[in-house]
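Input sequence (463 aa), recorded before submission:
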Amino acid sequence: MRRIFWFAVLATTTTAPASTAQSVQTAAANRTISGQLEDGTRWQAIAPAQWNGSLLLDLDGAGKPARPGVPTSTEIPGGVLTEWLLSQGYAYGGIVREPVGYDFPEAVQRLVDLRAQVAATWGVPKRTLAVGGSRGAFVVRKALELRPDIFAGGLMWSGGGAGEVAVLRNKLNAVFVLKTLVDPAAPLHLVNVEVTRDTPALTALVAKARSSPAGRARLALAGAVEQFALWSVPGTAAPAATDYEAQVDQMAESFVFATALPVRAGVEKVAYGNVSWNTDVDYGRLLRLSGRRPMVAALYEKAGLRLADDLATLARAPRIAADPNAVARTETMMTYTGRIRAPVVNVDNDDPVDPASDKLVYRDTLRAAGTDHLFRMIWANGPGHGGQTALDRAVGFRLLIDRLDSGIWGDTSVPALRAVAADIATQSPVNLGASTLFEPGNLPTAPNHWDVRHWGRYRGERR
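Predicted structure, C-alpha cell format:
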C-alpha cells in the first residue's frame, strides 16, 4: 500500500499543473519548491543559492497545518534557526503535521517522498538529516530507525524520549490524581477524550485546585507523580528551590497545555482506542521517585491535610485499563527499538510537556540496543515547551555535523559547548539569542518506560 501511495504522489507532483502540485520560485538568496500531496498534505523545501548538498527534513518543515479562516503563514518554518541553517548552506524542508497525525512511520515516508522531489529538482542530496521538535522529535527517532538508508543523522528537541505509551501514562497519572482528590464528580474524561468537551472541564478543575490550600497541595501531588517541571512559564523567573507556592503557580499555569488532551485524542484516533492504564500504579512509589516528597508534604501540612490519607484514597480508587489492541498498534508506531545506525543529538530542557527524566528513557532504550554511543544530549536552562534558544539548538547541530564529518564526538562539557555557542553567535548573520546551556545535575528516575522490550506484554491487566 505504501509503495503504491509513493508512486501516486510522485506522479501527481511531477505531472500535474504547478498551481496544484509544485511551484518553483527564486528569491534573492533562496530557492523554494512547494506542493501538495493527494491527501492534502502540504510540503515545502528551501535551498540557499550556494547549497552545500545537505538536506534537513522536518515534520514541521512546511509550517503549520491550514486552519479555516487563518491565513497560511509566509514566514520561514523554524524561524531564526532555519535562517541560520540556510546561511550556512543547508537546505531545509518538510511537511505539515496534518493529516498524517500521529502515524509516525507514515510521516517518515512522506519526508522521504519529499526528498525525491528535491532530488528531481536540485539533484540528489549528498547528506540527509532528520530534524525536529515536539512531535517532530518523535519523527526524528523513527526516521533513524526505519530509514537508515536515507537519514545520516538527527537533531531533535522537546519531545518523545519515552515514546507515546509511557508519555501518556505519565499524563494519565497526573490527571487521575487531580480529579480523584480535587473533584471526582468533575465532567472530565481521562481517556477516550474529546478535546472540545474535556479541555474546559480540565481547565475548571485546575482553577478549582489552585483556589484553595487543599487544592494546591493536591495539585502539587499530581505534578509530582508526573515529575512536572517546576519552572514552566516562559517570561518568568525560576522559583526558588523552596518557594513551593510559586512552583505550584507555575504548574497551574501550564497544567492544561502540558497534559496535552489534543495529543491523547490524536493518538487514540490512530490507535482506535485508549492506550493508557493505571491499574498497576503505586502513587506513593511515584511520589518517592520524583524526589518531591518534601514539597508535597510541606503543602499538605500547610493545608491541614494528611498526605497518607490521600495516598490511601488513590490506592482504593477505581482504576483505568487500556485497550490491548490499541496499545499494540501504538507500540510500533510511536515507541522505539533504539536500533539506529546514525548519530543523533538531543537539545532539551525540563519541559512541562516532557519532563527531564523522560529524555533519559530514550538513552536507556539505546543502551539496551547497544547504540547509545551514537547519542549525545545537551541541556538548556529555559522554561516551557521548546524552552531552548535558537543558539542552543545551533550548538547541537554543530555537534552533530562535527561528529558526521570527523567520526568522533566533540567535547560536550558545558564550558566547551559555551565556547561553541560564542563562536556561532559571533559569526552568525542572524540573532540566535543567548545560550542557556548548563549541567542539570542529578535527575529523578522516570516513572514509566515502554519500548521494544515491552511490546506485546500489555494484556489489559486489572487489579
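Checked by second reader. The chain has two domains: 2-161+337-438, 164-329.
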